[in-house]
Amino acid sequence: MVSAGLEILGLSLCVVGSLLVMVACGLPMWKVTAFIEANIVVAQTIWDGLWMSCVVQSTGQMQCKVHDSVLALSHDLQAARALTIISSVMGVLGLMVVIAGAQCTNCIRTEYVKARVVNAGGVIYIISGLFVLVPLCWMANNIISDFYNPQVPASKKREIGAALYIGWAATALLLIGGALLCCSCPSGGNSGYSAKYAPTKRTTQNGEYDKRNYV
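Above: the chain sequence. Below: its structure as tokens.
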């Protein structure tokens, strides 16, 4: 029962984490305009994402433009695109692996093998969390470096957007959920080995033991 509870809790955390990774991947708020000048009343706010850039007017209108060329993007954006997509795909793959080995399913009969399949799914989720953590930290480092760089104009400076915080939360859920799935172990009684018993001795009609029992 404890092992089944760990599987359900770990899988729930990993599924929520994978969904948050997909949300962070699609949101355009990876970089937002930094209000560092004396006059904080501005006419527009700029959002920069992996797939598009958006301009939000003070009136509430928003205009977005998809990035025309992948090669024209910075290296951190290109890496973030690739790694977040890989992380999302690995999240779906990990879900299928864990469901195949879960105790509530009958895809695999042997309990020992089922536990090992669940452990493999946990490893996949941990790798997925690491894949999405790399572009998040890389992007945050570039944003902070440009913010404190005096050579960068104030209009070009950005702050950390909401998508990065969502991605960090997703990473934490994936790592914790994957660790819980890796802690799922088979029970001691189901070790994959079956006990073998000697056949009982048979008696003949006259009440004596069959001589074949002594051969």
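The chain is about 50% helix and 10% strand.
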